[in-house]
Recover the amino acids of this structure.
């Protein structure tokens, strides 16, 4: 799990990790297989309510909060053995879509920063429409509640207003990775699809 702004006075970001095997020690260096980077785990905490306690060591089954590491995504693996790599967590197919507008252009930076953070946390998905000239984000969710969570967090954590405009689609189809542009153009799609 990744969570930002748990303490409203700080713009921190915590990645919660479960120790699956072996021993965790503060300041140890691990490999992040998705990015290929070596990372030093210097700022590790155990959280209980609003209290934080520094963790020097942890064992299999323990959950540790790692602060300030921006490269992590949900489902990532950290390891000292570079041969270990798991398949990524499957993404659920969205069933509801909406455009997210920023009605206050003076707060565009907060709006964009908040939306980027929420996307990185996996709160919601963003879709890109091919050949579209609009830069308004098209959000995709499994249910309406996800949109409400995004709007609430944008407002409370980033001070950014937002307005939803329901999109006309209710189905999405995942296409095989690596399809060429010409293959996409050759697909037989129903009228009104993009």
């Amino acid at each position: 799990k990744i969570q930002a702004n748990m303490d409203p006075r700080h713009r921190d970001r915590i990645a919660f990790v479960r120790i699956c095997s072996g021993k965790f020690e503060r300041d140890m260096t691990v490999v992040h297989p998705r990015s290929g980077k070596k990372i030093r785990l210097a700022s590790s905490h155990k959280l209980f309510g609003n209290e934080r306690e520094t963790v020097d060591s942890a064992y299999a089954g323990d959950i540790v909060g790692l602060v300030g590491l921006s490269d992590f995504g949900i489902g990532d693996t950290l390891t000292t053995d570079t041969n270990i790599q798991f398949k990524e967590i499957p993404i659920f197919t969205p069933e509801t879509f909406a455009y997210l507008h920023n009605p206050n252009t003076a707060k565009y930076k907060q709006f964009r920063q908040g939306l980027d953070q929420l996307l990185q946390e996996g709160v919601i998905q963003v879709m890109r429409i091919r050949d579209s000239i609009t830069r308004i984000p098209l959000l995709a969710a499994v249910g309406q509640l996800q949109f409400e969570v995004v709007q609430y967090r944008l407002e409370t954590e980033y001070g950014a207003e937002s307005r939803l405009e329901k999109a006309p689609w209710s189905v999405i189809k995942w296409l095989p990775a690596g399809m060429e542009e010409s293959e996409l153009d050759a697909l037989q799609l129903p009228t009104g699809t993009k």
About this structure: The longest strand covers residues 13-18. The domain at 2-67 is CATH 2.40.30.10 (Elongation Factor Tu (Ef-tu); domain 3). The chain has two domains: 2-67, 96-174. Residues 144-158 form the longest helix (15 residues).
